[in-house]
TrEMBL record, chains A, D:
A Pfam family that the UniProt record links to this protein: TPP_enzyme_C
GO BP terms in the entry: cellular respiration
Name of the protein in question: 2-oxoglutarate ferredoxin oxidoreductase subunit beta
InterPro entries registered for this protein in UniProt: 2-oxoacid:Fd_oxidoreductase, THDP-binding, TPP_enzyme_TPP-bd
Stretches assigned to the Thiamine pyrophosphate enzyme TPP-binding domain: 60-207
Keywords associated with the record: Oxidoreductase
Organism whose genome encodes this protein: Actinopolyspora xinjiangensis
Molecular function in Gene Ontology: magnesium ion binding; oxidoreductase activity, acting on the aldehyde or oxo group of donors, iron-sulfur protein as acceptor; thiamine pyrophosphate binding
From TrEMBL, chains B, C:
Name the UniProt record assigns to this protein: 2-oxoglutarate ferredoxin oxidoreductase subunit alpha
Alphabetical GO biological process terms: response to oxidative stress
Protein species of origin: Actinopolyspora xinjiangensis
Gene3D superfamilies: 3.40.50.920, 3.40.50.970, Pyruvate-ferredoxin oxidoreductase, PFOR, domain III
Positions of region (Disordered): 1-23
Length: 344, 634, 634, 344
């Protein structure tokens, strides 16, 4: 069953414009959020579901303004809590396509617990995590994904803690679908969103997003044509994991100790290359890929790490309701009366 | 029986005649034992028997915060008090006429509450040296004169039980665990209770373990027979059915009635009910109960924490369900930010707080009324919400329905304040006729509503009478809109930082809540000559009412009124308050309602407060009030 | 200059004489532009100049919730208002005498606040068709009669700036970004400000980018020279230094003063300071500032959320630090459960809430006073905490010190309520002599204290005067003990479910807070003949004071008092309130303090409320109060 | 630097009794918590640190009563928040040994976010997670580690969500030290606690704990002598991962796809056995081990999964303070005075 099963099909063809609300977009010039917004607006029509059955729920942060700009139903809720609201909505409304928009602070700092529980619970929602590695809206404090040692308003002597790797965290939290993509690569972003939307269950899409004001250039190495080729791995299900420029291809192999590492393609046996399988039941494979280069973006693994189906929380919850209704009619008078009564 | 508390037996006004079956009007029994002794179940069964017999009744369970404190210790004592009568009573009783003490700890912990002349039934088998020492008895109180003011029945319950169930082949330990049913059997005999229900109950409860069922039945009957045959129990008592209003009754606890009220609200509004909750004493049972009623379209969601519970409920409300969340004080604190969001979103939602002893973790299994101000003000900014409180276990049903009415009509989160005593206490409930329950149906918005003819949908466009905004649920074509916690332009609902709009919206939200229709408060002043008014809210209704009855019986006029709506307050309240020379407000907190009344009506309302984790006793309120009444009469 | 608001220029009482340098007593300037135009910096620099010159001053920044809303739009307008004078002033001013408008949006958004006769300086280069259209101007207001009530100076600031800095070789875009310094230069000339500080500041700020430093300096000087040389600016003004109390002054914002107060409290108590916080507007700057002072033994911890922030602070307090947490309303809501724990633990801790517009996310960058009742009551159970509020930016320092005194002396969490206007506003501060700051040293317990001579340590053994319990920090031999959120036995501190103990502990916690020593409240009633008292709290001190001055200047007697201690309230307050025929309580909420006063003192205090995200204006309060004063005189 | 560096050494020899408070222990008869309490009391003396420099902080739950029973400093705080309190305490007090006691509800449900952040941040605290796969104190609702489908008070029709694997979750959250042990195996429990105490930084020890009242026998297969031998893997650093009864030994090998699986020792080449290395920088190894048998306890991997040193949050925070103090004297008058002043 796909992620959108149960959502009514559109009876018209939408364009990006149909998903554009009348609200003026208020991000800073050059903010990566614009690119994601454009990609989402452009991609939603292809899902072929009714616009009115689409809902965006966000927390608080720059990225959390997202729902205002979408001509769908939406809620700009409170900091960190969007997954909880989406859970209640998705559980009671199988006919909706429910999206959560969150940031690295919103989703991983204050909202970390809701995120990991939503993933483990496997509610049919798609979470877009805009990771700019900084608190944008509150003007530049470090976030749980900021580089260690980063000097920010709240860490003038440098931050101290090890950042989360959102993909690893999600996998450790039993997520069924985890992917990573980039604000600046519209095609890859769209492709990744497509896969996420098709997945039934909780899906996490980490989007590296540039904040030109408070953390400019955090992902510049992935935008520079040369560097990008040297660093960017795009996972493809069923294919060996290779990357790099034409003249110097790399591949991912497993070393003697069982760890993944990057090697020059020329120097390894093709048969030793790790073949990506997003559907493996054992999360270890996806996890190992998530550890290949991390905070330093060298390399940067993108694409769908894991896409494994299992029954969703909301489908099962509704099924329990249906079964109960079949077994016992909803006779309120009988319920209230119960069995031990007396009459005066 | 030496009747207590001013109640006299009918057939034996002086309490002398040594009869075999004697009529009494009311009895208070307390079963007390170790946490592992099954006292709650025993009390519950006896309650069912009394209910089935047609008595009026009220109960008060009391158990430790530990799951099972060390056996035989004072902190491990669990008790269940039950008051049943042949007339309508109001409280679980101040002081037990009968104490069943299953071990020395239970005796010691409860002795202080007994009036002189009370009956004490003890399980002598547990009065071992070791057990006595655990609670600091040097010598067994059964052997000293410590109990001389009481009628004491010494029964070797453990051994008798073991003997009675020997034939089932249970181990000695398992066999002994049936001793609570022995006690129940004995008390059932003493009070002439019908036993069929209990026998049926035991068979069903242990239907998977026939051996255990059999053993419990044998123990129960052995207890009954023990009363019937031994010399020591010369007298049995009878409490006739009460003459309550006509109709069919059942027994309910507050939490059960609350759950039923929520289910009924869903049925009568024709909305799915979504309960998002996180377990916490004493609210968890509402979640447990609701989870059983999936066939009524009730979804229950045990969230990762309280914030997620209320968040999910709000999400469900956004989607067109009746979102509900249940919790106790510490959980309400955690939910406060999200309730503020619900205020800004103007969506219906019910938040049920079953209050317990605070501050902080406090006394989790005890009762208190100290969350009133938290309910009213525990959020950032001006965020008014309606607040309601049931006055008794059965009232929880009506309050839940009324809370749903307000939430749905006015599109607002509503706070319902129950408490531990109401939640776990029980009383007979006149089962309502479902077809006569209020109609709570709502209509969702289905078309554009912009007053400027623009064919837009304006989510904050309001009903001029209720000031409620339209509820347009996702999936409705053409009404796509966004809501959020930032201030919004009235009508249109877009984000607005305009100062005048903000001021207007703050006042509008306040006006919407202030304008909620709530019934006038009735005053009970039978002779119309009272100069003192007693006003309470929540679970103090019973003891206040009982105290007033006692005063009136003593010829002292006193008026009583009770608030079920704390916000907004009934329209006639100011006038009522000003009618009396003195207003006394008993509360199980430091005077929270009194503060509100004083501020709003500038009436010199006097607090009487007790914050001891236990309900008021009728007797203590009688004393307090009689002083006040005598004071004004001077 | 046409002086406004009843203030007349000294040398030119009728405002006619066309001088070249004219003296005025006070000026209100508002710099307004796009969020990207650097208006906050510009205002800040001008403020520094005024401060350095010795004027009294007060400021009011105002910026959008978006980091950077779309350029040129109304929601993107950012402004900074500054009031400076040659006497002690109380507010940032109601209405600007001078508006600097960097684009059409800035003009449109602020025009409504200008009094007739005000001066408007516009950057004509931004009045393009496109920009005009963005804010809905059909025709340029510079070409219509819309501005005819004002003195308008049209300056091509962008072009002039670009020309001035061309030599630095910056790109046109970079060059244009210096136009705010052009504006600053022009205004500095107009008000005869010393410029050294600004020049030094610019060199330091851009020390890493000499080209940019040079460009900003050139722009600044170009602005100055433009004033000096062009015909259109015929007059410059002078505001003489104010005659404030003698001493050395600096300018502080409320958040800076608060941070300094916390650092000073650590130094004077000789305790390490631990700030556990989560960023939130408008509190984040306190965290940022504190993070700079590690050399004072200040640890700052940016936690994963507000709950972790206060939890860590409490953990640090348990370990013997001065635990502090800073937040705004939504964060306070989240912290409430943990504050309740701190109440139960009776440990010192400071919780600073910089209030902002609510409910929910509300108006995050605007000011409000609507968290008072949340601060007092936003926790489960009876959990009293002291509450203090600064009355102005500089007062934050003293309030922080006093809050620390209370927390440490009485072993209690203390709530400090600042607000957005206080936090971001600034004023001159008479720098205290450190050696005269209060001594806040505490002594930790170091030996057994059981009154029964058992050589045990009883953590809830109390100081008979303050009722504070002993503070024994981990690492102290022989005093090992456990604390927690369950109710505990007074003295011994072990868990206690005893009803009487609970009641006693609830009352004891209340009594401890009620007994905190706070100074009597002073009343300002210069002639002693007032029949109306105005009472406020927090940041409304300035406008209330200014309004009272105006009334008195009009011969209308009015008394003023201001609460810095909200809980407990000053001992003389009841007596003060009863002294007057009328009590008016202006608040930026729906009447929260008024409710408390009415309830506590049964005084018919009247609320005047405004909840618009902006401070009161002296003028509006003058009108309100003059009606009241006239009313009682009748 | 060991976990206890900075904590003053005891000048007397303690026994378990010295760590026993005067409070009566109030768990149900047979509760696994007793065994853990006994083990901790018995083990603490060997650390050789001053008793008064030991602090236990707990949240709420049955297990959270732990501090009351220890004759050390202690705090029984509120539900889920113990890691936050411990963080403030450990950061300000390098001379303390700080322990957190939590449950599967306290630590993984309401407190999940604090736990993962404490682990990533690497504060020098040791977290004992008593996992009985149920809410004990509130009388039997399912927890984030309960079996899927479990019928509890709150899930009469069976629970729906996928449980967390606490070890995987911790590893996904960048934990430096993660271990698992059993209430019933005193020797292994002690050994594991010892390793955790020695580790400098956040350490998580998951303890499988029986709740005889609400989830009796959840770990019985690990107590039955035969079953235990068949299922229980005890990781040892530097040794190949093998287990099983004398006559039928098993070993863990890596299959062709790189996944770990259990094989009969007799049927594999000894050289193909996975050798445990708790100190590998790449978390993938420990993670893969954590996926070997999970909720079904077949097999059950115990011992130290990962023990990797990295600078702790609190050491670095204190270092920043020291450095600042060296660079700038704490001159309060100078601070208050600042640079832009004027005198009247
Ligand atoms: C309860 C609460 N705490 C704090 C805040 C302040 N706040 C708003 S957004 C934010 C962090 C934003 O960071 P992120 O989620 O990374 O979003 P970004 O702005 O970078 O897109 C914070 C701390 C808040 N609004 N509410
Ligand atoms: C804020 C709050 N929410 C809920 C509770 C109720 N509560 C106490 S302990 C607990 C869960 C206990 O489970 P666990 O952590 O697994 O501990 P166990 O009792 O099993 O040892 C809950 C829900 C509470 N005390 N406080
Ligand atoms: S602050 Fe950063 S993330 Fe926020 S809108 Fe501006 S550029 Fe985007
Ligand atoms: S309920 Fe379970 S976990 Fe709690 S004390 Fe009893 S046996 Fe132990
Ligand atoms: Mg971010
Ligand atoms: Mg548990």
């Amino acid at each position: 069953m796909g992620g959108l099963a149960g959502v009514p099909a559109a009876d018209e063809e939408y364009s990006a414009k149909d998903f554009t609300s009348d609200q003026e977009v208020r991000w800073c010039p050059g903010c990566g959020d614009y690119a994601v917004l454009a990609a989402v607006r452009g991609f939603l029509p292809e899902l072929g579901i009714k616009r009115e059955n689409t809902v965006f729920v966000s927390g608080i942060g720059c990225s959390a303004r997202f729902p205002y700009y979408m001509n769908t139903y939406g809620m700009h809720s409170i900091h960190g809590r969007a997954p909880t609201i989406a859970t209640g909505l998705a559980t009671t409304r199988p006919d909706l396509s429910v999206w959560v928009v969150t940031g690295d602070g919103d989703g991983l700092s204050i909202g970390g617990n809701h995120l990991i529980h939503a993933l483990r619970r496997n509610v049919n929602i798609t979470v877009l995590l805009f990771n700019n590695r900084i608190y944008g809206l509150t003007k530049g404090q470090y976030s749980p994904t900021s580089d260690q040692g980063m000097v920010t308003k709240s860490t003038p002597a440098g931050s101290l803690d090890t950042p989360f790797n959102p993909v690893s965290l999600a996998l450790g939290a039993e997520a069924g679908f985890v992917a990573r993509t980039l604000d600046s690569d519209r095609a890859h972003l769209t492709e990744t969103l497509r896969a996420a939307a098709q997945h039934r269950g909780s899906a996490l899409v980490e989007i590296y997003q540039n904040c030109p004001i408070f953390n400019d250039g955090a992902f510049d190495v992935l935008k520079d044509a040369d560097e990008k080729q040297r660093r960017l791995i795009q996972l493809r299900h069923g294919e060996p994991v290779t990357f790099g420029p034409e003249d110097e291809r790399f591949g991912v192999v497993r070393d003697e100790r069982g760890e993944l590492r990057v090697a020059k393609l020329a120097e390894v046996d093709e048969r030793d290359l790790v073949v990506h399988d997003a559907q493996r039941a054992d999360t270890s494979h996806a996890f190992a890929l998530s550890r290949l280069g991390g905070q330093d973006l060298d390399p940067t693994v993108t694409g769908v790490f894991r896409a494994v189906d299992r029954p969703t929380y909301d489908d099962q919850a509704r099924q329990q309701l249906d079964e109960a209704a079949q077994q016992r009619p909803a006779d309120l008078q009988q319920l209230l009366t119960g069995r031990d009564t007396w009459t005066i | 029986m030496v009747a207590t508390n001013g109640q006299r037996t009918e057939s034996d006004p002086e309490g002398q005649q040594p009869d075999t079956l004697r009529k009494v009007n009311r009895v208070v029994i307390r079963f007390a034992g170790d946490s592992g002794d099954g006292m709650q179940l025993t009390g519950d069964r006896f309650t069912s028997e009394a209910a089935a017999f047609g008595n009026d009744l009220a109960t008060l369970p009391n158990y430790p915060a530990e799951i099972r404190a060390p056996a035989g210790t004072l902190p491990g004592v669990s008790s269940f008090q039950l008051h049943f009568a042949d007339y309508d009573i109001l409280t679980p009783g101040d002081r037990p006429d009968v104490l069943v003490a299953m071990n020395p700890a239970a005796l010691k912990a409860n002795l202080g509450d007994l009036p002189a002349g009370a009956t004490v039934v003890v399980n002598t088998d547990e009065f071992t040296k070791r057990n006595l020492k655990k609670v600091g008895y040097e010598q067994s109180p059964l052997e000293t004169d410590e109990l001389e003011r009481f009628t004491v029945h010494r029964v070797a319950m453990s051994e008798l039980t073991k003997g009675a169930v020997a034939e089932t082949g249970l181990t000695r330990k398992e066999a002994e665990r049936c001793k609570n049913m022995f006690a129940l059997g004995l008390l059932s005999w003493m009070y002439h209770r019908p036993t069929d229900n209990t026998e049926r109950f035991l068979r069903e409860k242990f239907s998977g373990k026939p051996q255990v069922a059999e053993a419990n039945l044998l123990a129960f009957r052995a207890g009954w027979n023990y009363g019937e045959t031994t010399e020591s129990f010369a007298v049995a008592y009878e409490v006739e059915p009460a003459s309550l209003p006509e109709g069919t009754y059942r027994q309910v606890t507050g939490n059960l009635a609350l759950a039923y009220g929520l289910v009924a609200a869903g049925q009568r509004s024709e909305l799915p009910v979504f309960l998002g909750s996180y377990p916490i004493t004493p609210a968890s049972d509402v979640l447990h109960e609701m989870a059983k009623h999936k066939n009524f379209g009730v979804t229950t969601f045990q969230a990762e924490d309280e914030i997620a519970g209320v968040g999910a409920a709000l999400g469900a409300s956004f989607g067109g369900s009746l979102g509900v969340t249940t919790t106790s004080g510490p959980g309400l604190a955690l939910k406060s930010e999200t309730i503020g969001l619900a205020v800004a979103l103007e969506l219906p939602m019910l938040i049920c707080d079953i209050q317990r002893g605070g501050p902080s973790t406090g006394l989790p299994t005890k009762t208190e009324q100290a969350d009133l101000l938290q309910a009213l003000y525990g959020r950032n900014g001006e965020s008014p919400v309606p607040v309601l409180a049931p006055r008794s276990p059965a009232d929880c049903f009506d309050i839940a329905m009324d809370a749903a009415r307000i939430a749905l009509t006015y599109r607002t989160p509503v706070l319902l304040l129950s408490d531990g005593a109401t939640a776990n206490g029980s009383e007979p409930w006149l089962i309502p006729d479902v077809s006569e329950l209020p109609d709570l149906r709502v209509s969702f918005a289905d078309s554009p509503n912009a007053p400027d003819g623009s064919e837009e949908f304006w989510p904050y466009q309001r009903d001029p009478r209720t000031l409620a905004r339209e509820w347009a649920v996702p999936g409705t074509p053409g009404l796509e809109h966004r809501v959020g916690g930032l201030e919004k332009l009235d009508g249109k609902g877009s984000i607005s930082y305009d100062p005048d709009n903000h001021d207007a919206m703050v006042r509008l939200r306040q006006r919407r809540i202030d304008g909620i229709e709530v019934p006038d408060v009735p005053v009970e002043d039978p002779d119309g000559d009272a100069r003192v008014l007693v006003l309470g809210w929540g679970s103090s209704y019973g003891p206040i009412g009982a105290a007033c009855r006692r005063l009136r019986a003593r010829g002292m006029p006193v008026a009583q009124t009770h608030l079920r709506h704390l916000n907004p307050m009934p329209g006639n309240l100011g006038e009522v308050l000003r009618r009396y020379d003195r207003v006394v407000v008993p509360e199980m907190n430091m005077g929270q309602l009194a503060m509100l009344l004083r501020s709003r009506y500038l009436v010199d309302a006097q607090s009487y407060t007790k914050v001891a984790g236990l309900p008021f006793q009728a007797e203590e309120l009688e004393n307090v009030l009689s002083d006040v009444v005598q004071g004004v009469e001077l």
